[in-house]
Write a structure and sequence with these properties.
four-stranded antiparallel beta sheet; 33 strands; flat
Length: about 325
């Protein structure tokens, strides 16, 4: 179609053509030596061009890497070798080397390499997590419940060793986002160990809480913490943020000063607002002057902070 046939001013056409030229220059990441020029629509992945192998990061990570160790004549993406494997397109190799996400896996043997999971594979000599050796026991490296893996010596979650006692490992189940196991030394919660625990009385609870016969624990921001002053025998999870026992109420594992568990109520989980028969609390602090007796039924909370609680009119 010629410019004369387009129903728009010539100046506008020239502007669009200029803009397309600029965008093409921005998004056409090229290797000047080889002439390989992935454009804006080139998907992330592996490519062979002019006798060389490349990995292109794609639009959101537009880097072009020449795989200098690869033999382009033997190079293939592993989705051809492992059809149907959802992670296979991240792997590629020739008759010797293996690559994951465009980087060489040092020491991996292409001829015996198999894909286990995202970033996890093994050959006849080693197990690799991404680009590093994870285990030297590939013959016994298997997937277990909860998405963990084990060999004859260790238990793994991702790149972490979470137990050195695979023989006594027992799966306790999933609670929320946490997978629980026990071994002869303690409890494993995802990749966090709880060793100062009585395994026989251990009970996982909701929202990252757990307890044994004498202690209460909470996993918060990938850290294990003990809930101080909590009575394990009467401890219960009320909601995501609030818990209580026979004597105390807790907000995110922190004791709420003088709160009564017998009359405790959540006003708003969203605003971290609660009360008992004497006080109104924001998080774990009393709101000065706030009177729970003045809360009117049916009124919607507008906001709550450390200074006041306000309901809609």
């Amino acid at each position: 179609m010629s410019i004369a046939n387009l129903n728009m001013p010539v100046t506008q056409i020239l502007f669009i053509m200029s803009l397309l030229g600029i965008l093409s220059g921005i998004f056409s990441c090229s290797d000047r030596k080889s002439g390989f020029k992935p454009g804006v629509l080139t998907p992330r992945g592996y490519y062979v061009y002019a006798g060389k192998a490349y990995f292109y990061g794609g639009f959101s990570n537009a880097s072009l890497i020449e795989l200098t160790e690869a033999d382009a004549t033997e190079f293939e993406v592993f989705d051809q070798r492992f059809p149907g494997n959802e992670y296979a397109a991240e792997y590629a190799g020739d008759n010797k080397a293996v690559y994951f996400a465009g980087r060489l896996i040092n020491g991996a043997d292409s001829k015996t390499f198999v894909i286990l999971d995202y970033g996890l594979g093994k050959d006849s000599n080693s197990v690799f997590y991404r680009h590093s050796v994870l285990s030297d026991d590939p013959a016994n490296f298997v997937k277990i419940e909860g998405g963990f893996y084990k060999d004859s010596r260790h238990v793994y979650r991702g790149s972490y060793i979470v137990s050195d006692d695979p023989v006594n490992l027992k799966y306790l189940g999933q609670h929320g986002y946490i997978e629980y196991f026990s071994d002869s030394k303690g409890i494993i919660a995802n990749d966090i160990r709880i060793d100062s625990v009585d395994v026989n009385s251990f009970v996982p609870l909701a929202h990252g809480y757990s307890k044994d016969k004498s202690q209460v624990f909470v996993i918060r921001e990938a850290r294990l913490e003990k809930v101080t002053n909590a009575d394990a025998g009467s401890f219960q999870v009320v909601s995501k943020y609030f818990t209580k026992d026979s004597s105390n109420v807790f907000w995110r594992g922190t004791e709420m000063q003088e709160a009564s568990p017998q009359t405790f109520k959540i006003i708003s989980e969203e605003f971290h607002c609660s009360c008992d028969d004497r006080q109104i609390y924001f998080r774990n602090k009393k709101i000065p002057g706030a009177d729970p007796g003045k809360i009117r039924a049916g009124k919607r909370l507008k906001y709550c902070n450390e200074n006041e609680i306000v309901f809609e009119d």
